[in-house]
Write a structure and sequence with these properties.
By secondary structure, the protein is an all-alpha fold. Helices cover 76% and strands 1% of the residues.
């Protein structure tokens, strides 16, 4: 029969405008994620704090996702996806503007609060945008549609990395940490002047970002976004929905896998600068360039893997890429030359598919429960809050010795990403072979 074997469309004409508009947000939160990652190393040098303390930037940043995910889902359920997007943009902009008084105060806790407020907004955005994109078309192509939208996230990430490299890291005073410590002891006033200058350098791009996000907020306030299936039902059956979700093995395992995926992503991208600096003596600014190479790899393979999903099982591809990531992290740990850094860069190719694919697999078939289910998957971003401080703490320890084998604490710290990839590989395997999920 004519047309019987045609695949359903990924996107129809009626949803083209709202899809394009909401997809811009994927780039916008990608920018926030990756202008922030290099700040872990920057704050460490400016304020003379430990790797553990500086990694609290990621704890505050991704903690906002975790704390606000369920309130955001309930807000969206009560009102609409558009209301959730507007609230997210408002909090995002407010968090960026809080960097200004944080710089005046020169207080690390104030910067952490600004990051937390900013990512409470990002939590609203992701909790709204991801399921909204899934709903803009046939369920059979929902995962491909989300993968396509998520492909624009790394474009924002690359822009954020470039801004961090060009307008922050390059403009920070190049005085090494050891010399700063001496200056702090011998001339405290000059040290404070130097720290104030560097913090002003950090504040300026975030203030500009706040203005940009506020303009986007106005655009979304004016724009008409069509309601999708389920938005008319405003009844909140919280406990009933939770019970249904808890009984769904594929969903619960997806939340766990997403927790470990976000953890491994943030660890690999946050500490690539420290790996380059501590293991190979590469300056932070050049280390950020390697971070951009990693993101370029991520972007390229996101499009490649999105195309491959037309022909292969999402779970099978997830398993294969997680296994590849596991092997590359072994190279990062045990290869002592520049090739260890190249392995760390190549890990981004394996991570490119993971977030939207885990997201799409876990939410498939949930119906109206997908709104609260999406919140659980956004809460899983908390993996990016908890794991980097643990890795930072390991990096603060002395070198590890195993008989005749001596490994720096930096290399040993990448055992955490190794564990993460093992968990993701297990979920990919179970998706294909236990839960019977062939295509989503």
């Amino acid at each position: 029969m004519e047309g019987a074997h045609k695949h359903p469309p990924v996107l129809t004409r009626e949803f083209l405008f709202p899809f394009a508009l909401v997809t811009t947000l994927f780039a916008l939160w990608g920018f926030a994620n990756d202008v922030t990652n290099p700040m872990v190393a920057a704050f460490k040098n400016i304020l003379l704090i430990s790797n553990f303390q500086s990694s609290l930037v990621q704890f505050a940043f991704y903690g906002g996702y975790c704390v606000m995910a369920i309130p955001a889902a309930l807000f969206i359920k009560r009102f609409s996806y558009k209301s959730g997007l507007l609230m997210g943009l408002l909090l995002y902009s407010l968090g960026c503007f809080l960097f200004i008084p944080s710089g005046w105060m020169m207080a690390f806790w104030a910067f952490l609060l600004a990051y937390f407020v900013m990512t409470c907004g990002l939590s609203f955005l992701e909790t709204s945008a991801n399921p909204y994109i899934l709903a803009l078309g046939p369920e059979e192509t929902a995962t491909r549609r989300l993968n396509f939208a998520q492909a624009f996230n790394p474009i924002g990430s690359l822009t954020g990395m470039w801004v961090a490299k060009t307008f922050i890291l390059r403009r920070l005073d190049p005085m090494p940490e050891a010399e700063r410590r001496i200056l702090q002891q011998t001339n405290p006033e000059e040290f404070l002047k130097l720290a104030h200058h560097d913090l002003d350098v950090i504040v300026a791009p975030y203030a500009a970002l706040g203005l940009t996000v506020f303009v986007v907020l106005i655009i979304f306030l004016i724009a008409r976004l069509p309601r999708v299936a389920g938005e008319g039902n405003r009844n909140i059956d919280f406990l009933g929905t939770v019970r249904r979700l808890v009984r769904n093995g594929r969903y619960i395992e997806g939340v766990i896998a997403q927790f470990f995926y976000v953890g491994v992503q943030i660890m690999c991208w946050t500490f690539i600068i420290q790996y380059a600096e501590y293991e190979l003596g590469i300056k932070k600014e050049i280390g950020q360039l390697y971070n951009m190479y990693a993101m370029g790899t991520f972007v390229t393979f996101r499009f490649i893997c999105t195309y491959l999903l037309k022909y292969v099982s999402p779970g099978g591809l997830l398993f294969t890429l997680a296994t590849g990531g596991f092997l590359l992290i072994l190279g990062t740990i045990f290869i002592p030359t520049i090739w260890g850094l190249y392995c760390l860069i190549a890990v981004s190719a394996c991570m490119s598919l993971m977030f939207p694919t885990i997201y799409g697999i876990a939410l498939k078939g949930l119906g109206d429960d997908a709104k609260l289910g999406a919140a659980g998957l956004i809460m899983a971003i908390g993996g990016g809050a908890l794991m980097p401080p643990i890795q930072g703490w390991i990096m603060d320890q002395p070198a590890f010795r195993y008989g005749s084998l001596v490994l720096s604490s930096t290399r040993v710290s990448f055992a955490l990403p190794l564990i993460c990839f093992a968990v993701i590989a297990l979920y990919g395997y179970r998706t294909s072979n236990v839960h019977g999920h062939r295509y989503s």
